[in-house]
Amino acid sequence: MDTPSLAAPPLIHAARAQRTQTPAGPRSLRAPPAEFLHTPVLVEEVLHFLAPRPGGVYIDATVGTGGHAQYVLEAMGPQGLLVGIDRDPYALEVASRRLAPFGERVKLLRGDFAALCALAQQAGAVPADGVLMDLGVSSMQLSQPERGFSFQEEGPLDMRMDPSQGETAADLVNRLPESQLADLLRRYGQEPFARRIARAIVRHRPLRTTTELAELVCRAVPKRAWPRRVHVATRTFQALRIATNRELEALEQALRQVPEVLRPGGRVVVVAFHSLEDQLVKRAFRSDPRLRPLTRKPVRPSVEEVRRNPRARSARLRAAERVEVL
Which of 60, 62, 184, 294 is most buried, by the most CB atoms less than 10 A from its CB? Predict the structure, then answer.
């Protein structure tokens, strides 16, 4: 993955949220209302493993709308610093309002966590006491049809976390050869009918909307093979979102930089939502001698949490501690 530009990414103090303009993006997109707040998952488990201490320095590398960040700030007490990083300007706008009561203790940066070290240094957060990553797509993003992440409502086939950068999902489905599309769906979506779906896409493109793609997948996959618990297009949309945002490449880069950011004794907590992410996290924690895994197996949400928040169903948490290497 190409490293994002580091030429002075915007830094927003939550206390100045009301005076901060929404970062530029396509005119069709609007910042969501501040009252629309994404529900964070595994909050108690995140706090247990991150173990925020009074006066500490913490980095939420995927701050989103600030759900986990709020709990971390509350656990830290009246002092300390939290740096929130996200490439979605609309999520940062909500986070800046949500975290405004914490004033100058919060710094929000628009950027990709693939550049974790540079962003953390810019914010004065090195060495840090903890790093948190909550991966995947948020409820807010799924609920905005114009972002193109969901097949529940019609919208442009976009799927970019940062709406100002890179190819859209429509660009990918309308450009890639059939064999590459099939490989993408199989690799990133673990889709058993990848070849059939890719063939259908090529035959019917150009595709422009989310519902067009979802209906095409429904026709391409035999009904007897449809999953019982999720929509048949879920794997296809996951694969395209991951490819569009180069999510796995960015995660690998971020994980390699975590030990450079943490002080000895500092901790990293990652919440993944599918096995591709989780395997990268597991491998990084076990292969780097500067990290000591704190979780032998991924920590999963309780039955009660899944009942309250169905999005938590596929969440899995891993944690590690920075150690000295002699």
Answer: 60
